[in-house]
Write a structure and sequence with these properties.
Distance between the termini: 25 Å
Radius of gyration: 26 Å
Largest sheet: 3 strands, antiparallel
Helix content: 40-55%
Number of strands: 6
Order of helices and strands: HEHHEHHEHHEEHHE
């Protein structure tokens, strides 16, 4: 494969002048095999290459759950009925388990609900689930324009960083 790949690289350079991204040019060939071929060709001064590193984010299992079902805080908010009666905290814990405490804390911090004795009562009429919206953007694009959103989703262990390595190749000296 290595000799064949080296020939393919040289032919592509002859016809196109350069290879902008080896990942796109050589689909299905591992980065290590491409690097081996490039190093061999570079040692013979037939090619020069530059490493391209791309960082992207993927959604973790807990993030997938919140992407599909809404953030914990949005779930808790939706479970609290409108009106002054609210819902007992113990009922939320019975319905949502450990998620109830996490969601309840965020709901209180966001001032969506308030504590009234041992119940939660809605303050806000409606909410925007920013966590779910952020996860949707990351799922669609692999990133998010807001560094604060990335930081928050990462801190909550809803996403994780990944990187790909490829190479830009040009003819050697």
């Amino acid at each position: 494969m290595s000799e064949e790949l080296k020939l393919t690289i040289l032919k592509k350079l002859d016809s196109e002048g350069s290879i902008e991204d080896t990942t796109a040019a050589f689909k299905g060939v591992s980065e290590e095999v491409v690097l081996g071929a490039l190093k061999s060709l570079e040692s013979q001064e037939k090619v020069a290459y530059v490493t391209l590193t791309t960082e992207f984010w993927t959604i973790e299992a807990e993030g997938k759950d919140q992407l599909e079902n809404g953030s914990y805080e949005a779930r808790i908010f939706e479970a609290v009925p409108a009106g002054s009666q609210g819902i007992a905290i113990k009922d939320l814990e019975a319905k949502f388990g450990k998620v109830a405490k996490l969601g309840q804390g965020k709901c209180l911090a966001n001032k969506w609900v308030k504590k009234d004795g041992d119940s939660l009562v809605r303050i806000a009429d409606s909410i925007v689930d920013q966590v779910k919206a952020g996860l949707e953007t990351v799922h669609a694009t692999g990133t998010h324009p807001s560094k604060d959103t990335i930081k928050d989703l990462k801190r909550r262990k809803l996403i994780k960083a990944n990187k790909t390595v490829s190479y830009a190749v040009s003819k050697g000296a």
